[in-house]
Amino acid sequence: MARKKKDTAPETTTPAVITDQIITETIEKNFMPYAMTVIVARAIPEIDGFKPSQRKVLYTMYKEGLMTKPRTKSANVVGATMQYHPHGDAAIYDTMVRLSRDHEALLHPFVDSKGGFGKQYSRDMAYSAPRYTEVKLEPICAEIFGGIDKDAVEMIPNYDNTKTEPILLPTSFPNILVSPNMGIAVGMSSTIASFNLGEICDGTIALLKNPKTTTDKLLDLIKAPDFAGGGFLIYDREQMKQIYETGYGSFKLRARYNYDKANGIIEITQIPYSTAVEVIVKRVVDLLKEGKFKEITDIRDETDISGFKLTIDVRRGTDADALMAKLFRQTTLEDSFSCNFNVIIDGTPRLLGVRDILLEWIRFRMGCVRRELTFELSKKKEKLHLLMGLGKILIDIDKAIRIVRETEKESEVVPRLMEGFSIDEIQAEYIAEIKLRHLNREYILERIKEIEDLQREIAELQSIIEDDIKLKDVIAKQLAAVKKKYGKPRKTQLITADEAVTDVPEEEPVENYPIFVVLSKEGYFKKITMQSLLRADEQKMKDGDEIANSEETENRAELIFFTDKAQCYKCKAADMDAVKASALGEFISVKLGFDEDEKPVMMKALTEYNENDSIIFIFENGKGVKIPVNAYETKTNRRKLTGAFSDASPIAAVIYEHDPVDIFLENSAGKGILINSSLIPKKTTRSSSGVILFNMKEGLTITSVTFGKKIDKEKSDGCRKNKIPATGIAVRKPAEQLKLG
Question: pTM of the full predicted structure?
Answer without folding.
Answer: 0.66
